[in-house]
Design goal:
Largest interface: A-B, 21 and 29 residues
Number of strands of chain B: 18
Largest sheet of chain B: 6 strands, mixed
Distance between the termini of chain B: 54 Å
Number of helices of chain B: 17
Order of helices and strands of chain A: HHHHEEHHHHHHHHHH
Distance between the termini of chain A: 31 Å
Oligomer: heterodimer
Strand order of the largest sheet of chain B: 12-16-11-15-13-14
Shape of chain A: globular
Helix content of chain B: 25-40%
Largest sheet of chain A: 2 strands, antiparallel
Strand content of chain A: under 5%
Chain lengths: ~300, ~550
């Protein structure tokens, strides 16, 4: 460590860069699918963050002189190329897909983080307190888990209405009990550990024990659920939007793009449903691969193998 | 009164429309054939069987064939707004007497309800009493249309007399509305006024067989039907299919023969391209219009400058050109059905009504000026819309793009039909909403009551005594010129002075169907000409197309 500190900054940077490259190559060898998933996730994040610079057109601007033109056509108005063609309003599909990544990631990350965090707290609390509290919480969770995710989300949208914020609520709520159930099973074992008894005996409060001593030890299942939820949330958002119950026009969102084009234009303008469909498929595929890799990395049994 | 004044003009104006329809109609030289079952697809479930309380094609298309009307739009000339013929009455539609205040109908003898009960004038009186004077707690969606009716009498078994409180040009078109199913007095007396919501007993060309919820309605030929030689079909099957793609593929795949509401242009093109001569298309202007309804109780939409700016921003001519390629809208018009003698011409609208001028840049510059003057240069609001693609969501998305051109930042809030109407009627918590005015019989004076604050179906939440007075004067106007002048004053008040609501585009009806289906003629409404009695099937052609 001391040696490292005495090395010139350029050497340290070079070693750091080499370290990252080595680690990346190592990851690519050990977890090629997870690595590919990570690349997809990274590309999506970059697309979402830099959408303003990457998109050649305003994703919401209609150009009625270029309705339903195919991939590679050139706009009469701006001279720019519609790389993936246009939809029925003459909007550039490429730009809408780039901006759609922003919608997907906003919904995906928000729902996954909120759902798994709240689920973790609920699961840990349920395991920690036990007794009637645990019994009641678990029965409520049973009720929620009796419904398939999409049905539960549909019911919540029916109550709260449509729009991005409502979709986030609709997807987050069904995630909470799913994460809580998984985390609880890990937390039940941790609750019996001597150091928890020790923490109790020296007078730590419940909140401190839950947050500082149990929660950090259920990070593995928490992270696994979080990454699994990311892909699921993107797919759910796309499903709700496809059903007309999610994000609304003119906001660019992949499911909504499918909803607007799949039925009417699948035959005459196949690019309208195909590209948003591909975007959803690739994104969910990427997040699932990435999630699996995270699970493998955090699961001691799999890691030892 | 109305028919005398406008019949000649109506006939002339609609001549061209008729010609267009006729051109699209398959040749009628063939003799009608008997037999076969018509399979129609309907894009909606049935809320109830009671037409007196319903306003949806989801009820009319499967249930209308079981019932009769007193008078109706001529099934051989349904595109005319002034051609009415008797259904249960005999002879022609009566001319009024007593200074336009009395109409006497002679009722056809020997007609029976499907349960065998003879139909008499007492049934007609009971039906119109229910429609015009429903008892406390009983709904009638047509009550407002019969405001002029003072009483209905049945002096003998074959005579019905309507006494009006004032002469009205809207009376006959109101009687001819397809929702005025004639019910048996016996049913109303014995079972009550809500019995027809869940039971069917009519006297129409087909008898009710079954309704499987969410699946289909089945009817069979009524052998005792009173119009000689009709119906031609042995029966019909109304298949419920809410998704447009399912309806489209049902026709394409030979699982259904026809859909009566209408498809968007792309669907028509796909069908024609796939099936060629096996598909026939009829098209017509449609007595339906999408209206922008600002909520006057929400700021800044209480300011007429803001409302006017929103109307000025809409490129109606461009919208007509482009949206007609992807949606069931096409015609630019004012508040009255385009082409009707009472309605304003495109030239008049361009010169006199904000937002119809062809200089789009000037319109939008004026819109920006008005917003600036009103202190809302960066106007931000939510457009409330109905969760139905055609044409609501398409037109909503177009309108948002148009408003963006004058600097407005608009989000869309879409609700399914029931909550959508709950928002408009009860919660009233919207900024600006899309709403529609769809009518059956073209009856402009009655139809434009939609724009009247006291009309019962206006959701703009405002009051205007001047507008109310113009409408009262219009109802009582006796000459066509007087009606026309007042109609234009009313229109200018709504669309220009107040911009209380404004028009987007009128709908355009496109009905592609299998070419072995004959006898049906398109009307300017998806509610009209739906008794199915005049439809027949060319069995050989059907066999050629579908096999079997």
């Amino acid at each position: 460590m001391a040696t490292l500190e005495t090395q010139p900054r350029s050497n340290r940077d070079a070693m750091g860069r080499r370290g990252i490259v080595d680690w990346t190559l190592r990851m690519a060898r050990r977890q090629p699918l997870g690595f590919a998933g990570g690349i997809i996730v990274l590309l999506m994040v970059l697309m979402a963050v830099f959408a303003d610079f990457l998109a050649p057109f305003d994703p919401e601007a209609a150009d009625f002189t270029s309705m339903l033109v195919g991939p590679g056509a050139v706009s009469d108005m701006s001279g720019a190329t519609f790389w993936l063609g246009t939809d029925q309003f003459g909007r550039d599909l490429f730009s809408r897909i780039i901006y759609g990544a922003r919608t997907a990631l906003t919904v995906g990350f928000t729902c996954a983080i909120l759902g798994s965090t709240l689920g973790m707290l609920l699961g840990v609390a349920s395991a920690y307190f036990g007794g009637y509290f645990d019994l009641i919480v678990q029965r409520i969770i049973d009720v929620f888990m009796a419904f398939p995710l999409i049905i539960m989300a549909l019911a919540i949208v029916a109550i709260f209405g449509t729009g991005t914020d409502k979709v986030i609520i609709a997807i987050t709520i069904p995630f909470i009990p799913r994460c809580a159930r998984i985390v609880r099973s890990s937390a039940l074992a941790i609750r019996e550990m001597p150091y928890i008894d020790a923490a109790r005996s020296i007078g730590y409060g419940h909140m401190r024990i839950i947050v500082r001593h149990i929660a950090p030890n259920v990070v593995a299942p928490f992270l696994i659920m979080l990454t699994a939820f990311l892909g699921e949330a993107i797919l759910l958002e796309a499903s709700l939007s496809y059903l007309g119950l999610g994000v609304q026009e003119p906001t660019p969102a992949w499911g909504l793009m499918l909803q607007g084009g799949a039925e009417e234009y699948a035959e005459s303008a196949p690019w309208v449903p195909v590209f948003p469909g591909l975007a959803i498929t690739i994104a969910v595929f990427g997040f699932n691969l990435f999630g699996d890799a995270v699970r493998d990395a955090l699961d001691p049994k799999l890691r030892s193998q | 009164m109305y028919s005398r004044l406008t019949k000649a003009l109506g006939a002339a104006t609609f001549g061209s429309a008729l010609a267009l329809t006729a051109a699209a109609t398959p040749a009628l030289a063939q003799e009608p054939q008997y037999g076969g079952e018509l399979r129609l697809v309907v894009g909606s479930d049935i809320p109830s069987y009671d037409a007196h309380i319903e306003s949806t094609f989801g009820m009319i298309h499967p249930i209308r064939p079981f019932y009769s009307l007193l008078i109706r739009v001529n099934p051989d000339n349904p595109s005319s707004p002034t051609d009415f013929v008797c259904d249960l009455c005999v002879g022609g539609v009566p001319e009024p007497t007593n200074g336009g205040k009395t109409y006497t109908f002679k009722i056809r003898e020997g007609v029976k309800f499907h349960d065998g009960t003879p139909l008499t004038s007492a049934d007609i009186k009971a039906t119109f009493d229910k429609l015009a004077f429903p008892p406390e707690g009983i709904a009638s969606n047509r009550k407002a249309y019969f405001k002029m009716v003072e009483s209905v009498e049945a002096p003998d078994a074959t005579t019905v007399v309507f006494n009006l409180s004032f002469p009205s040009g809207t009376f006959i078109p109101s009687v001819a509305m397809p929702f005025n199913f004639i019910y048996a007095k016996k049913d109303l007396d014995e079972h009550g006024y809500t019995w027809h919501q869940t039971n069917v007993n009519g006297s129409g060309p087909f008898k009710f067989v079954e309704h499987v919820q969410g699946s289909h309605v089945k009817g069979v030929k009524n052998p005792d039907y009173y119009h000689e030689g009709m119906p031609y079909l042995d029966g019909f099957m109304s298949i419920i299919a809410p998704k447009m793609s399912v309806r489209l593929q049902a026709i394409r795949g030979g699982q259904a023969d026809i859909e009566f509401r209408g498809f968007p242009p792309k669907a028509r093109d796909d069908l024609v391209s796939a099936l060629g001569d096996d598909i026939v298309v009829q098209e017509s202007d449609w007595n339906c219009v999408l209206i922008v309804t600002p909520n006057h109780e929400v700021k800044p939409f209480d300011d007429p400058r803001v409302r006017r700016a929103l109307s000025l921003a809409l490129d109606r001519q461009g919208g007509s050109e482009y949206l007609s390629k992807i949606a069931i809208v096409k015609t630019v018009g004012g508040i009255g059905f385009p082409g009707h003698p009472l309605s304003s011409t495109p030239e008049y609208l361009e010169k006199n009504i904000a937002g119809y001028g062809r200089d789009l840049e000037a319109n939008r510059a004026e819109a920006r000026r008005l917003l600036k003057e009103a202190g809302h240069e960066n106007l931000k609001f939510t457009l409330h819309n109905r969760g139905v693609d055609q044409p609501y969501k398409v037109v909503g998305t177009w309108a948002i793009d148009q408003w963006k051109q004058i600097g407005a930042d608009v989000e869309q809030w879409v609700q399914p039909s029931s909550p959508f109407y709950a928002t408009l009627q009860k919660q009233k918590n919207f900024d600006v909403s899309l709403d529609f005015n769809c009518q059956a019989v073209v009856n402009p004076i009655a139809d434009i009551s939609k724009f009247l604050p006291s009309g019962g179906a206006n959701y703009s939440n405002f009051e205007d005594a001047e507008l109310e007075q113009i409408y009262v004067d219009l109802l009582k106007a006796e000459t066509f010129d007087e009606q026309k002048g007042l109609f234009q004053r009313y229109e200018k008040r709504v669309l220009d002075d107040l911009a209380s609501q404004f028009i987007t585009l009128w709908w355009y009806k496109i009905n592609p169907y299998r070419s072995y289906v004959h006898g049906w003629k398109i009307a300017p409404s998806h509610y009209l000409n739906q008794s199915l009695e005049n439809i027949w099937i060319d069995a050989a052609e059907r066999k050629r197309q579908l096999g079997g």
